[in-house]
Every structure is written in structure tokens, then in C-alpha cells.
Amino acid sequence: MIELGLAGAVAAPGLARAAAPALPPLPEDKKLGYALVGLGKLSQGQLVPGLKAARGAKLTALVSGDKAKATRIAEANGIAADAIYDYAGFDRIANDARIDIVYIVLPNSMHAEYTIRALKAGKHVLCEKPMATSAADCEAMIAAARNADRKLMIAYRCHYEPHNLEAMRRIRSGQYGKPKLVVTDMSRQSTLSDPSDAWRLDAKLSGGGALADMGVYGINGARYLLNEEPVEVRAWAQTDRSDPRFREVEDLIAWQFKFPSGAIANGSTSFGVVGAMRFDVYCERGRLRGDPGAYYGGNRLDVFGGPGQGPVELPDIDQFAREMDWMADVVRGTVPLVTPGEEGLQDVRLIEAILQSVAKGGATVKTDWGYKRAFDPGAVVPVLPA
Ligand code: NAD
Predict the structure, then answer these.
(1) Catalytic choice (123, 129, 160, 296)
(2) By 3-state DSSP, what share of the chain in percent is helix, strand and coil, each rounded to 5?
(3) 180 with 262: CB under 8 angstroms?
(4) Torsional sign, CA 379, 342, 323, 335
(5) Listing from the earlier edge strand, what are the strands of the sheet with 101-104?
(6) For residue 9, what is the DSSP state?
(7) Does residue 266 contact residue 215 with C-beta atoms inside 8 Å?
(8) First CA to last CA across the chain, in angstroms?
(9) Is 217 a catalytic residue?
(10) Fewer beta carbons within 10 angstroms: which end of the chain, N or C?
(11) Going from the N-terminus, what domains does the chain have, and what CATH number goes with each?
(12) Nearest-5° angle of CA 4, CA 250, CA 266?
């Protein structure tokens, strides 16, 4: 997705970038082994390098339908030829002791099947967002993890990203007063001729176009910035059906969440406007802005009003390395599972509620089904890696 193109290219003018803190890596034999399932843009661009930078994890296996591509990536990264699997032979990973964690990086509609197969093979699973294309699939994935007694984590990288964590920490401190309004905008132009976008524009494979792909960052972001769950949603869409990209999925969707505290979140997402991944949190005495707030790199946090006005200086870190290290530590039992399957399910249920409201012309849809997150990331994930 566009995060790739914009990642790192988004310079933050006037904000000095400190170097990321150097973490002592664990010895090779103590690192947990990851199998990457699906060798597309995210795997090649971010996850292979992320596993090189990880402190306690390493790449040990590849799963792909393209033997030549997998062999090329394996040779470039010191992966043994017998650690390359195809989709038909995937279940043989059960006998491969080099694999501790399986990272599902496939089109969204394939997450459920490969997560469940990996769990049945006795492996822990890190699964990309959105968790699946239906709440029923998410529930089956959660049940499979429970039955297998293995960990299932959803790859919500912003829960491990310093600017987002610092925003959460400041909001929770109360120093700006009550947060009353969150605004999130997640968008980019999509390109039907790009295979990586073609499946995102296919309703069945993506589960909802821009909303499932990018809007989920805003849904998830409003929830973790406020640390509460929406009880009502209203949403509207604006889609030009003559645009070949939007024959099956909506283009622009705007929604409003109402939270129990009285706070409101305004969210938008589009695959047909210029790129943005940003948030604003309006509190009684200050406003926190992350613009950009959810790119791979170059994110900012700016404060307007209240204490500490101006840019907040934080280093760029490799979010993917940190997230994969966090998962490895979850498996080791040394850190809490802050983004479990239940977090993914909550966002997929909210995606479904947004699409229901769109279908009913903006009617209010109740979302007060009683979900509460197990851990506040703002309380348990340090702003910077230790
Ligand atoms: P991509 O299209 O670049 O890669 C998908 C891979 O799956 C390709 O190698 C493709 O060959 C393979 N594949 C197997 N079966 C397929 C099928 N039936 N149709 C299409 N492709 C098939 O996509 P990507 O950008 O790497 O995204 C993969 C997953 O990662 C998605 O769930 C996406 O939401 C997620 N993602 C997350 C982030 C993030 O920042 N966390 C960023 C990008 C993508």
C-alpha cells in the first residue's frame, strides 16, 4: 500500500531525528524463528529487513506460491532451501523446529485459513491487519488459538510506534484535560493495474477496499487514543461507480463514533484521494496532532495548547522489528499480548457496523456489545524500546 511509497520519504521539517536506540541483539540460538507467509510488498519491503534488525527474532522460513521468488529471497537472506514451503505443503511446517512464529502477510480473505492451519501445526501466529474479512472468521481464528494453546497477535504496528505511544501517554496523563474529539484520515490513490492494489479493490479478497485496508488504522487509532470503545456509529459513502476501481468497493467513507465518555471520533478513508495517515486529538486544553501519524517512518507528534507546545522530538524506529520482537517476547512470556485476536475482531465488527450504516444511508448502528481491551498499550508498551 502507499505506506511503502511514502515511508521514510515523509520528512518532518524542523524536527531533528535522533538515531534509534541501539538494542543488544540476543545470541542467534536464542532468537525465535519466523516463517513469512506471502512474499509481497510488505514482506519484501519491510518484514525481511525488520527481521534483520530484530533483537530477539530472525527469519527462518518462507511460504510462497512462487518458487523462483522464494528461492531468490531465501538465497539473499541465508534461508535453507528446505525451509521454503508452498501453500499445498504448508502444513508440513508442523515438523519444522526452525519455525516458532508464522507471520500471515497474505490478502485479507486468506488470513483466516492460514492462521488456523498454522495454529493447528502448533505454531504461534502474528497476523496482518485487518484480521479477516468477517467477524465469523475472526472468531474461528481466536477459537483455533485457544484450542491449540498458542498465541495469536494482530500486527497493529502503531501500538508499538513511539509517536502514537507518546500521544496515548500524554492523553492518559490528563495534562490537556478530557479528550473530546478525535479526527482520523487515512487515504491514498489506488491503482487497479498494480496487483497489490487489484486485490484491495476486490470486495471478496479485501473485505472492504480502503476501509479494510487503511480505514482500520483510524478505527483502531480512535480506540487506542481514547482508550474506550464506541457505542454507536453512523457512516456515509461517496463512490463513483463509473470509476473501474470502485465497481465492488466503496471509495470515500466518512464515519462518526460516539464513545461512552461523550467523546466523538470523526474518521475518513479513501482510495481515491491524495495520501494521508493522520490523527488529531482535541482535548479541553490542548490538541495533539500526528500528521503524518501512521507511516512506516517520518511520523510526527505536535502539540497545540497546554503543556509542551510544539513538536515532540522522538526517534524513528523500525516499527516492524519492534512489533516482531514484541510478539517473540509474548511467546517467551515476558510481555503482555496487547494486540490479541480480540482486538482484530473488534475492528472487523466495527468495519461491518460502518458498512451496515452506509447501506442504511447513515442510520445509527449500535456497537455497544461490551468489548473491553485487555491492556491499554499507553500503559504497558514503553514509548521507546528498552
Ligand atoms: P501484496 O499484494 O504485495 O502481497 C500479497 C502476497 O500474497 C503476494 O506475494 C501474492 O503473490 C500473494 N498471494 C497469494 N495468493 C494470492 C491471491 N489469491 N491473490 C493475490 N495475492 C496472493 O500485499 P501486501 O501489501 O504485502 O499486503 C499483505 C497483507 O499485509 C495484507 O493483509 C495487508 O493489509 C497487510 N499490510 C499491512 C501493512 C502494515 O503496515 N501493517 C502494510 C501493508 C500491507
Answers:
(1) 129
(2) 40, 20, 40
(3) yes
(4) positive
(5) 84-85, 57-63, 32-37, 101-104, 124-127, 152-154
(6) T
(7) no
(8) 30
(9) yes
(10) C
(11) 28-157 (3.40.50.720), 162-315+341-368 (3.30.360.10)
(12) 80
pLDDT bucket at 386, cuts 50 / 70 / 90: confident
Nearest Cα residue to 46 out of 7, 93, 85: 7
Q: Which of 85, 156, 176, 217 is catalytic?
A: 217
Nearest to 15 by CA among 374, 328, 297: 297
Our CA dihedral for 44, 8, 188, 350, rounded to 10 degrees, sits at: 80
Distance CA 245, CA 209 (A): 10
Active site residue 129: yes
Count helices and strands in the chain by DSSP H and E runs: 14, 15
Question: Cα of 41 to ligand 1 centre, how many Å?
Answer: 7
* Report field, pTM of the whole predicted structure over 0.85: yes
Q: Is 12 in the pocket of ligand 1 (CB under 6 A)?
A: no
Compute the average pLDDT of residues 31-52: 98
Residue 148 near residue 119, CB atoms below 8 Å: yes
Q: What are phi and psi of 88, to 5 degrees?
A: -65, -35
Position 17 pLDDT exceeds 90: no
Which alpha helices (H) appear in 282-366, and where do they start and end?
319-332, 341-359
